[in-house]
């Protein structure tokens, strides 16, 4: 603004105010800068994912501890209630019998020994139950404290996991946007970006990406050569999912998804007879084994009639 005022007051040949106020847009980041940012985000996402997985394990352990502590407290409470009822019954009997002088009861009784035996028995059980009640109360209090502590730990871990999951989703969204911008500018960059995610679909795609450059061979299913359904079958087999070596059967091996719902690792099919397929990578691109004389590579899905997508995992 100061520059504009100087120019305006400098003389008759000064720049007009309206043209001097035009702002210049910030330069767009270069392809190299975008790729660097994408790689940093992917690395950050991997760290967050591992932290999330660690908290999942801790939460499972805390919840198990809370369940065990709760069961223990419930057992102690049931035992205490049984003793409570027994002591109450003994107390009532003692009170009823204590209404007269024990000596009179002894003399008036037809069976004095029975009175002595009953009195001694009542005294014995009352004494024993009193000791047991105290022990059970202590055990119950200890069990309840353990239960509250375990439940508190479980809640704390659950809250942390929720916060971490929110952060992970935010970074994933940012990564997807940066990757999309980069691939729109230079589609070849997609091959150099990591496949993010811990699900089996992402794992299978990550493994399949390692087979880029391997030759297409009809009927082959790896580990060195592949045809289109052989590549997807091999990749998913490595993560514990068995797919048949036939596009038509793989079409029925999972949940059908639309083109707009595709996620990395989903199977994509082409032509009405489903004679070609690949694995979705992202941004309208797929990994596939094209045909004889070609190699496993990333290619655009455009140019082939899209039949549908299948989510296996």
UniProtKB/TrEMBL annotation:
GO molecular function: cysteine-type peptidase activity
Gene3D superfamilies reported in the protein's UniProt record: 6.10.250.3150, endopeptidase domain like (from Nostoc punctiforme)
Keywords per UniProt: Coiled coil, Hydrolase, Protease, Thiol protease
Ranges for domain NlpC/P60: 198-313
Record PROSITE patterns: NLPC_P60 (PS51935)
Record-given protein name: NlpC/P60 family protein
Coiled-coil stretches: 31-86
Family, per entry: Belongs to the peptidase C40 family.
Pfam families documented for this protein: NLPC_P60 (PF00877)
InterPro entries (alphabetical): NLP_P60_dom, Papain-like_cys_pep_sf, PG_Endopeptidase_C40
PANTHER family documented for this protein: NLP_P60 DOMAIN-CONTAINING PROTEIN-RELATED, PEPTIDOGLYCAN DL-ENDOPEPTIDASE CWLO
Disordered: annotated span: 147-171
Source taxon at top rank: Bacteria
UniProt feature, compositional bias: Basic and acidic residues: 148-168
Keyword Protease attached: yes
GO BP annotations listed: proteolysis
């Amino acid at each position: 603004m100061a520059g504009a005022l100087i120019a305006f007051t400098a003389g008759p040949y000064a720049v007009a105010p309206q043209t001097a106020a035009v702002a210049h847009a910030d330069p767009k980041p270069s392809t190299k800068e975008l790729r660097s940012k994408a790689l940093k985000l992917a690395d950050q996402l991997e760290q967050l994912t591992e932290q999330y997985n660690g908290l999942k394990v801790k939460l499972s352990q805390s919840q198990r501890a809370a369940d065990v502590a709760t069961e223990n407290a419930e057992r102690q409470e049931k035992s205490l209630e049984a003793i409570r009822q027994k002591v109450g019954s003994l107390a009532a009997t003692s009170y009823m019998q204590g209404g007269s002088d024990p000596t009179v009861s002894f003399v008036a009784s037809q069976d004095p020994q029975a009175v002595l035996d009953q009195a001694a028995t009542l005294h014995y059980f009352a004494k024993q139950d009193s000791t047991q009640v105290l022990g059970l109360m202590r055990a119950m209090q200890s069990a309840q404290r353990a239960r509250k502590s375990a439940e508190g730990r479980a809640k704390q871990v659950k809250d942390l996991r929720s916060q971490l999951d929110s952060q992970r989703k935010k970074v994933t969204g940012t990564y997807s946007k940066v990757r999309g911008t980069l691939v729109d500018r230079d589609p070849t960059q997609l091959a150099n970006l990591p496949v993010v995610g811990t699900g089996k679909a992402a794992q299978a795609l990550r493994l399949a990406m390692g087979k880029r450059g391997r030759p297409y061979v009809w009927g082959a299913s790896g580990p060195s050569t592949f045809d289109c359904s052989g590549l997807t079958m091999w990749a998913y087999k490595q993560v514990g999912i068995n797919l048949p070596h036939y596009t038509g059967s793989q079409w029925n091996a999972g949940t059908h998804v639309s083109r707009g719902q595709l996620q990395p690792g989903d199977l994509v099919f082409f032509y009405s007879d489903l004679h070609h397929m690949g694995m979705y990578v992202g941004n309208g691109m797929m990994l596939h084994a094209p045909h004889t004389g070609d190699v496993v590579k990333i290619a655009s899905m455009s140019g082939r009639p899209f039949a549908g997508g299948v989510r296996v995992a």
